[in-house]
Amino acid sequence: MERTFSIIKPDAEGFYYVHRDRPFFGDLVRFMTSGPCIVQVLEGENAVARNRELMGTTDSKKAAAGTIRQKHGTDIEKNAVHGSDGPDTAKFEIGYFFSGAELASLK
Ligand code: ATP
Ligand code: MG
Fold this sequence. Notes:
binds magnesium ion; mainly alpha; binds adenosine-5'-triphosphate
């Protein structure tokens, strides 16, 4: 018997594959894998749009006062949070991290 040490790293390249051809892709993946992240599924009426509203616009420097990105982000790249931009992307992104069984409590 022995021990080994293992870290499960997020596959941010796969998660953000829609942006693979954009010039900032390398920096985005570096930032997304620079530390631990917490993933969560938020449920509620109009959850996609309401979460985007709470997050604020992509560029933290331009985000409205009181939004998460304005409070906790740094700039357009290091903007603290991600939120799905539509029901289809939400479905893909939730499935990327969670199994059906884990979401059993959701209707
Ligand atoms: P997210 O998808 O992370 O919720 P978003 O939908 O507001 O953000 P996207 O256009 O989908 O913005 O860009 C994805 C991510 O890529 C952004 O959150 C940001 O970290 C990074 N990004 C977007 N545009 C730029 C840019 N012009 N320069 C550097 N990084 C950028
Ligand atoms: Mg997006």
